[in-house]
Structures are given as C-alpha cells and as structure tokens.
C-alpha cells in the first residue's frame, strides 16, 4: 500500500508539516532539506514536492498553519471581552504565551529570525490575522497595522520583558493604537 493511500490528502500535508516541525526543533529551520522532511514523514521526496513546490513553500505553509492555530487559540481566550482596548491587550499577551508554548516555533524567533521575516514579508495571511485583532470592525484588514503588530510581537519574543506583568504593562501603555484607546474611553 502506498503512503498516499494510507492517508487522505489533507492528512498527508499535516503529516509532512508535523515531521518538519520535529526537524525544526532538532536542527533549526535552515538545516533540514526536503529529503529529510520526506524521510521523517515516512514518504518519498516526490510526495513532499507534490504538496510543496520548494522549501520556502513548505516553510510558509508551516508558519501559516501555526499562525492559524495560535490565532484560533487566542480568539477563544479573548472571546467575550467587550472593552476593545482590553481585547487587543489580551490578544497580544495570549499570542506571546501561545507562541512561547510551541517548541517548534522557538527557532523561528531565535538568533537568526531572517526566515520568519521572509515569511512575514511574503504572507498576507499572517498580517491579515494580526490586523484582525487590532481592527476587527474593518471590512479590509489594515496590512500595515498587521505588519507593525507582528514586528512588536517578534521583538517581545526575541527580547522578553522581565516578567509577564511588565510585558502586559508595556503592551497596555504603548501598543494599542490611540483610536482604539479613544473609542474604549467613550
């Protein structure tokens, strides 16, 4: 029985991305090649290339999947917070906690975060997700706002505060855009 007939197509992609995640934890982002990912997933290199044209496409798919999972987790945590300012603060704090809790993401914001910057630059999906929390009532996401938020989150990941309370205080004070602060005050 072939590898593909044992798994449905969508499960094949997940299996490959799960294998890549394990390799990223062990070897970093740059080290594992497509052959390594295929071996870890228990499939052929051709199967990996069937789903991902090249390694950058695999990296982007991995980050998109992780970002979607993190954002779904964050959305559940901020659901029901009525104050817009508090919802944004809670979303950023929850995002930091969720990303830090995933070992497969640690290598993405370590010493050389160039791969992550590349994915951010190429991915409207990531910035759409980020801007959704800052401007949920807009019909079109503010991509600049999303990119800015991602840079702020990345800076906290790379250079954490002395405590979660300090990070929350800084986020409350400086991160939330003034127009949200004004709307929340009214």
Please give the domain count: 2
Mean of pLDDT: 81
Q: N-to-C SSE series? A: HHHHHHHHHHHH
Query: How would you sum up the major sheet?
Result: none
**Helix proportion range:** over 70%
Layout: helices, strands, pairs:
Elements: H1 3-6, H2 9-27, H3 34-41, H4 45-51, H5 55-78, H6 84-100, H7 103-106, H8 114-122, H9 124-134, H10 143-158, H11 164-175, H12 178-185
Characterise the protein shown here.
By secondary structure, this protein is mainly α. Helix 2 (9-27) crosses helix 3 (34-41) and helix 5 (55-78) crosses helix 6. The chain has twelve helices and no strands. It has two domains: 1-52, Arc Repressor Mutant, subunit A, CATH 1.10.10; 57-185, Orthogonal Bundle (Tetracycline Repressor, domain 2). It has helices at 3-6, 9-27, 34-41, 45-51, 55-78, 84-100, 103-106, 114-122, 124-134, 143-158, 164-175, 178-185.
In short:
This protein folds into two domains: 1-52, Arc Repressor Mutant, subunit A (Orthogonal Bundle); 57-185, Tetracycline Repressor, domain 2.
Keywords:
186 residues; mainly alpha; Arc Repressor Mutant, subunit A; Tetracycline Repressor, domain 2; 2 domains; 12 helices
């Amino acid at each position: 029985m072939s590898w593909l007939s044992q798994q449905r197509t969508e499960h094949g992609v997940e299996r490959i991305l799960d294998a890549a995640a394990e390799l990223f934890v062990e070897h970093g982002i740059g080290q594992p090649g497509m052959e390594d990912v295929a071996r870890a997933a228990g499939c052929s290199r051709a199967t990996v290339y069937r789903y991902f044209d090249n390694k950058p496409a695999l990296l982007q798919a991995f980050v998109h999947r992780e970002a979607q999972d993190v954002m779904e987790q964050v959305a559940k945590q901020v659901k029901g917070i009525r104050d817009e300012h508090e919802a944004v603060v809670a979303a950023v704090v929850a995002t930091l906690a969720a990303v830090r809790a995933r070992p497969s993401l640690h290598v993405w914001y370590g010493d050389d975060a160039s791969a992550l910057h590349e994915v951010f630059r190429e991915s409207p999906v990531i910035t759409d997700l980020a801007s959704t929390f800052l401007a949920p009532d807009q019909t079109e996401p503010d991509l600049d706002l999303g990119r800015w938020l991602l840079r702020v989150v990345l800076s906290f990941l790379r250079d954490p505060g002395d405590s979660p309370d300090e990070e929350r205080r800084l986020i409350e004070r400086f991160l939330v855009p003034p127009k949200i602060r004004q709307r929340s005050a009214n």
